[in-house]
Amino acid sequence: MNVAENLNINAGGYAFAPARSSGEHTDLNNSPLKLVADGDSNFYRYLKQIGLNDDPDLIILSARNHYYYGENDLKNVRTIINLKKLNLIKHLDKFLISLTHILPPETNFLGCFSDSKSADRNGSKVKRFERLVKRFNNFLDSKTDRKMNENKVSELLVAHGFKIFDMTKIDGVTYFHSKLG
After folding, report:
1. Residue 127 placed within a domain
2. Beta strand 13-16 pairing with 58-61
3. CA triplet 74, 109, 143: central angle to 5 degrees?
4. Beta strands of 44-158 (E only): which ranges?
5. Which H or E run contains 93?
6. pLDDT at position 14, please?
7. Would you say residue 72 lies in a domain?
8. End-to-end CA distance of the chain
9. Residue 177's closest CA among 169, 102, 167?
10. Do 62 and 33 form a contact (C-beta atoms < 8 A)?
11. Which of 39, 55, 57, 97 sits at 20 to 30 Å (Cα–Cα) from 104?
């Protein structure tokens, strides 16, 4: 059964029916439906657009919860999806180094980031003020919200051994598809 068949869009939002043909329920943690469950249906659409929505060997790293995977968990992974925006990862270099050391070669790595260039150019005074307040609150909360754009992210990923296949902007967020070389 393909993932898209499990996704029913109705007036009330998204309904899930993640069941195998045997009737046994699947684990949403490693299903592309988790992208929708975590509130990022654009990520699911992006995954479908690039043709990876039915990859059975994928792991989704939640933006909200922390999961710990060992080398054995990752040795057969073909795709890893990071839901947390790169802008918000406190130790981004360490994160990328860990991926390059643990993931098998040719693993797809997908993620997203807020493009600071487009955010600075676009928007009303109210939007700019909202971004300023958000940055100030992030500073008070000791959160990371680094400025990024397509060039910076491309350089960063290439420097860590990833090859960029695609970058697509959807609703102000840039989604990327890369592969470990």
Report:
1. no
2. unpaired
3. 100
4. 58-61, 79-82, 108-114
5. helix 92-102
6. 32
7. yes
8. 31
9. 167
10. no
11. 39
What total of structural domains would you count in the chain? 1
d(CA 48, CA 111): 14
Q: Which two tokens stand for residue 14?
A: 């998204």
Closest CA to 87 of 162, 143, 164, 169: 143
pLDDT along the chain (181 residues), means of 10: 36 32 44 64 90 87 74 84 91 92 93 76 60 58 72 96 96 95 89
Give the pLDDT confidence score for residue 166 in this predicted structure: 97
Q: How many CB atoms are closer than 10 A to CB 131?
A: 16
**Is 106 contained in some domain?**
yes
Q: What's the angle, vertex CA 79, arms to CA 76 and CA 80, rounded to 5? A: 105
Domain that holds residue 87: 3-115+147-180
Three-state DSSP at 16 gives strand
Q: What is the CATH number of the domain that holds 54?
A: 3.40.50
137 within some domain: no
